[in-house]
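ugh finaly. both done.
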Amino acid sequence: MAPELSTSLYKEILEQAPDAILYADGDGIIRLWNQGAERIFGFSAVEALGRSLDLIIPEPQRQRHWDGYRQTMATGCTRYGTALLAVPALHHGGTRISTEFSIIMLRGEDGKPCGVAAILRDVSERHAREKTLRERLAALEKGT
């Protein structure tokens, strides 16, 4: 049997993960932002903590995001469960990046939703390669 992990080891894993790991409370305010999030989104923890998730959500996706977020916080149910989601996100300079992420519904001691944790990965390079391949395939199929 493996030895128990100490709190400091959990913290080290969280902080050093290359993927973005963040937690937003029930109002969508960022309360946890690891080094992976700093690397992927370009915002330091100081810049991100206490700010709305709008920091990384492109304007065209915000209404849909917040409608779903509010419903999830009200019901405690998410339709995404263990699904891997693919969505655009914003980098510090305002450029869009492609991300994939999973979410973890968190509940308080009373069992009610208190926020969502997410693990995100920047897949922009892969997304661009796949787009190029789709375009080349479409051109070949047209005979050009």
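ok and the 2nd:
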Amino acid sequence: MTGDPVTFDDVRAARARIEGKLRKTPVLTSTTLDRLFGASLRLKCENFQRAGVFKSRGAFNTVFTLGDADAQRGVVTSSSGNHAAAISLAARTRGIRAYIAMPKNALKSKVAAVHRYGGEIIWVESRGEVPTTEEYDATVARVQAETRANLVHPYNDPRVIAGQGTCAAEFLEECPDLDFLLAPVGGGGLLSGTTLAARGARSAVKVIGCEPEAADDAQRSLRAGHIVPQIGPRTIADGLRTSLGDLTFALISRDVEDIVTVTEQGIAEAMRLAYEVLKIVIEPSSAVPLAALLERKLAVEGRKVGVILTGGNADLDQLPWARPAER
């Protein structure tokens, strides 16, 4: 035993727990992209996961970890989008209530997903355009006091991290000889789970985090050796605007090879590339690793590269190539 709060054994347990409840998502290839990047690409398509996003893995693992008595009190979380939908779906699947603290400026498409999956939205009152961590926490605390619902942190939770790690565990089982494995990083749940899966599989793969230049706290944190909070991120990759947590930072700083950043224009171009070449819908956050390849942030020529396409919940009324990308 390592004494770590979350281990590869937890990832394996999560795989067993969610089996039959979630999809084993496909891995796509593209000769066009291989020629473009001079590498052999494998693309793990979490946009085909239930709720259209990898976050269903952590949400289902957490909700189905709860004992029956605890589960009947429901769950509460805070999220501006994909985690909110995933928790709502997981709770509906188990037959319990989900309370979601959401900002009033959340994307309409993601609010609609929460409603579609039966989540109960509690709007976060904020003095600014974007709620602060303290404002989110105050809303969640109020709901907990009123309902006794179980708190589920969007990413800094061992159950969530273990669930997210099942994505890379599946990926490396199907593609064990990858040289690089790229994943976006916001709060770090997916990236830290990915490192656990790579370590547990005894893989020599180099795990690379990818994030927007306009929300580069993870890169700065890794280089500083401590968490550097995210302040005022302005990126179209709305799922990557959060800061790392202490659990995710510890795992990322231990095992991630590097974190690279990309431009807003690069994100928009990579997202469009996926639509035009792969013929699949991905959202801006999902396009960030592809943008890292487009902008030549890694030397991948002649190598085998895995990319986790994290989700497909794009706002179809606000596609980034239909307007200038924010810088």
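summary for the 2nd one i guess: The longest helix spans residues 158-174.
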